[in-house]
Amino acid sequence: MRLTCPHCQTRNVVPEAAAGLDPSCEHCGKTLLSGEVVELCETNFDAVVAGSDLPILVDFWAPWSGPARMMTPQLKQAARQLKGRALLVRINSDTSPHLARRYAIASIPTLTQLRGGQEVQRINGPLQAPEILAWMQ
């Protein structure tokens, strides 16, 4: 499968069997699928999304939003459970307003699911980790 490193934007090819085994970027050596939520921004979002064969869950959030902040531990738990099967990323809509506009984000938090770079579904409002996992199915 193809994965683009969120740190250096290098495209990597990872055998599917190795997806859950902490594969590293061939260029910078950082872990590609750590089971953690990855912070992205306008400068690296498109490269990471376009270069990934995995489904991507995007959390559009803002630091001033209580419900968005409350979702942080839930997203972390979901990311650990989806390790190697999906990539969870966060976009701060305050520091990446062009992405928020591009995806027509009207409320925070908003979760969008991307497959092949295209949005396939979205949901607004805070979710618990089991709800996130079920929604990703």
TrEMBL record:
Gene3D superfamilies: Glutaredoxin, Zn-finger domain of Sec23/24. InterPro entries: Thioredoxin-like_sf, Thioredoxin_domain. CDD domains: TRX_family. Residues 8-137 form the Thioredoxin domain. GO terms for cellular component: cytoplasm. It comes from the Bacteria. SUPFAM superfamilies: Thioredoxin-like (SSF52833). GO terms for molecular function: protein-disulfide reductase activity. This is Thioredoxin.
